[in-house]
Amino acid sequence: MKLRNICACAAALALAACGSSQKIDPTSQFGPNPNLPKPSRALLVRMHIPKVVGWKSGETPTVPNGFRIEAFATGLANPRRVYPLPNGDVIVVETKKSGSEPLDRPKRPIMDWMESMAHGGSGGGESNRLLLFRDANGDGKPESESVLVDHLNAPFGVVTFKGYLYVADTDAILRYPFTPGQTKITAPPVVVTYLPAGPIDHHWTKDLTASPNGTKLYVGIGSNSNIMERGETAEFERAQIWEVDPKTGAHRTFASGLRNPNGLTFYPGSNTLWAVVNERDELGPNLVPDYMTSVKPDGFYGWPYSYWGQHVDPRVRPQRPEMVRKATIPDYSLSSHVAPLGLAFYTGSAFPAQFRGGAFVGEHGSWNRPELNGYRVVFIRFQNGRPVGNPMDFVWGFIGKDGKARGRPVGVAIDRTGALLVADDVGNTVWRISYAAAPPPTRATSAKTTSF
């Protein structure tokens, strides 16, 4: 199908969906008890995809008063993850999914076009590699850049411990011998374990972290469909978080029913794993809320049979009421269709005290609703290891006043100095936000939620 025909079809889909709405107060969808309107199903897919224009010279996203934002690295090729090392080096993961999926559904060409618009920047040069930026004095202006590892297959998650660098490609966890300070890895990788992938690889990003004691790896594996429309076989060992033995590659299902888990990280000083999860589409602009949650061992979170606990999705076949009854309710709703892909707890000391222990979430942004949602980094305060209050906009302005996309945030991380790093895959930039010793902000999210 030619691009102009795809675009015409997409425009028709969007127009056809305009008559259907779920009018609710957006602030009612944050926190542990989100407002869940009745499902609103349309014959055609609701969507709104902003045109990508990138950042002009001198443009940056916006941050609250008292903070400063600067480009840490520019001219990248679809950066999706940032991983700071203890010595101040920063690994940036550049990644692109190769090729289109086979034509297994009539709407596949439209979805391929939509995903190319919505889920990544074009970028110049090579991708699917790890870059290493050396910032020895911590001023946010790297002195050097090198290719640490290349020729990867859509990498996303990375973690280092006990003399090794682990990389989650879309189809395998790889292990490299590594010591912080290295600028290039020449040793061939060892495959720790293979991951579900294949010609149809719907959620291809595989996030990765390690247990605090370094004895286990945890990898997020998204579903291979929206609501299991490709059948149960296509979802074998997907929509899960695996627990993996890094020595043997043996794995078990740590938690399931998670449509697309990312941002895997342990809460500081604890053995509690947290993740952000992209929920299902095509039930209306305000269903289903994406969420942030602690991940209970052996927990089941509903996908595809139900959402937000026991709310049944009537589209799924076969129905499984016994699974619905055991579905765990997530901890914290982030609102519908914000597409969270990054999560980092603030462990530094450079920001004001109220930020410490709270969560930064990178929201890549919506496509399945008329009004854009997400496209920002939010901060959520924690008390006693639990999220409290409403989210607060911390980095925004990725969508300009003209409605066009300058960038889209993905991974977030805290560097050695306590600054926040944000990977912007559409803007092909890594941004660095530092504190400039002014009073903390009061700006809330675009839904006018409360701040501190």
Number of structural domains: 1
Q: What portion of residues is helical?
A: under 10%
CATH class wording: Mainly Beta
CATH homology superfamily name: TolB, C-terminal domain
CATH level-3 fold name: Neuraminidase
Strand content: 25-35%
By CATH, the architecture is named: 6 Propeller
Largest sheet: 5 strands, antiparallel
Distance between the termini: 51 Å
The count of β-strands is 30
Mean pLDDT: 89
Q: Uncertain spans, ≥5 residues at pLDDT below 50?
A: 1-19, 438-444, 446-452
Strand order of the largest sheet: 1-21-17-16-15
The rounded Rg comes to 20 Å
Quick structural overview:
This protein is mostly beta strands and 452 residues long.
Written account of the structure:
This protein is mainly β and 452 residues long. The chain has three helices and 30 strands. The chain has helices at 3-17, 108-118, 321-325; strands at residues 30-31, 67-73, 79-84, 90-94, 129-134, 144-149, 157-161, 164-168, 172-177, 190-194, 208-210, 217-221, 240-244, 251-256, 261-266, 273-277, 289-294, 299-300, 306-307, 311-312, 332-336, 340-345, 359-363, 376-380, 382-383, 386-387, 392-395, 409-414, 420-424, 429-435. The strands form eight sheets. It has a five-stranded antiparallel beta sheet, with no helix packed on it. Strands 11-12-13-14-18 form a five-stranded mixed beta sheet, with no helix packed on it. The protein has a four-stranded antiparallel beta sheet with strand order 2-30-29-28, with no helix packed on it. α1 packs across α2. The radius of gyration is 20 Å and the shape is globular. The chain starts with a helix and ends in a 17-residue tail after the last strand. The model is unreliable at 1-19, 438-444 and 446-452 (pLDDT under 50).
